[in-house]
Specification:
Blueprint: H1 3-25, H2 29-54, H3 58-73, H4 75-89, E1 95-98, E2 101-102, E3 105-106, E4 117-125, E5 132-142, E6 145-148, E7 151-152, E8 159-160, E9 165-166, E10 169-170, H5 176-200
Antiparallel strand pairs: 1-6, 2-3, 4-5, 7-8, 9-10
Length: about 200
């Protein structure tokens, strides 16, 4: 593995981490959409730099081949790849805006509730007297957020669904924030592994 490729991949990983941090603290649809798009581009660039650094270099060539194979097999990694290509090369929306409602009316949230789960207590009410019935139950209300969509590879027309698992572990609620968090963890490990190959291939 060429050392400069790992250094450049590390730079792109830093950009992905910055975009992830912005996604976690986004307080509007626009901010979340931009952070998610920036995250996808940076993740794609990590792969591109490592691919160039591995070409024709000892064990690294085969190693990167395995990384590409893993990206095809793993639902989350495949989705990040497809979503990036769809956003950069396509003309479809890769997310949509979830607006929580009650009885068809939008709920008003504070900006800090964007993309968050808000703890609350739920209590049954007698339909006749409107008096509380029984003990309150703990619950959560999801604030507004962007929601991932099925994306399409424009070149080949292949579709990729929102991931519900990663490395054999189920993803119950695939929010962009969680998908990015899992993606960052994987990228950190991948770049560290690539750096170890710089020594092995010299």
């Amino acid at each position: 593995m060429k050392a400069i490729a790992v250094d450049l991949a590390q730079n792109k990983l830093a950009l992905a981490q910055q975009a992830f941090a912005r996604l976690q603290t986004a307080n509007s649809y626009e901010a979340a959409e931009q952070a998610w798009a920036d995250f996808l581009v940076a993740v794609g660039a990590v792969y591109s730099k490592l691919e160039q650094g591995a070409k024709g270099v000892g064990k690294s060539d085969a190693w990167f081949g395995r990384q590409k194979h893993q990206r095809k097999r793993d639902a989350l990694l495949r989705y990040l790849h497809f979503a990036r290509d769809s956003d950069v090369h396509g003309i479809e929306h890769i997310t949509h805006r979830d607006v929580p409602t009650i009885d068809g009316k939008p709920i008003v949230f504070r900006p800090e509730h964007f993309g968050k789960e808000i703890p609350l207590q739920i209590r049954k009410v007698d339909p006749v007297t409107n008096a509380p019935v029984g003990d309150p139950l703990d619950g959560t209300l999801r604030g507004p957020n962007i929601v991932l969509r099925t994306v399409t590879n424009q070149k080949f027309g292949d579709r990729c669904d929102v991931p519900t698992e990663h490395q054999g572990q189920a993803i119950e609620v695939p929010t962009p924030q969680l998908i990015a968090e899992l993606g960052i963890k994987y990228m950190i490990a991948m770049v560290a592994e690539a750096r170890s190959l710089v020594v092995q291939d010299t």
